[in-house]
Design brief:
70 residues, alpha+beta, Thioredoxin-like_sf
């Protein structure tokens, strides 16, 4: 799903996949309670978050809406 999302919105956002087992401090830093977690930042500030399972099409639409509103 991450690769498909990169193709759909990659020109607008940077998408990074994090191995939370290898880097558990990231989940603590961003207070992630449930995986997968999708967090959208603008200029270093969190502007949107979704934790838990979500289908790719819905995620794509939500991200595009948020990007369009910036």
């Amino acid at each position: 799903m991450v690769e498909g999302l990169k193709k759909a919105v990659g020109n607008y956002v940077q998408i990074t996949k994090v191995d939370t087992d290898a880097q558990p401090e990231i989940t603590r830093t961003f207070n992630v309670q449930q995986l997968p977690a999708f967090i959208l930042f603008n200029q270093g500030l969190e502007i949107w978050r979704h934790e838990g399972v979500i289908d790719g099409q819905t995620l794509n639409q939500l991200i595009q809406q948020k990007v369009a509103s910036l």
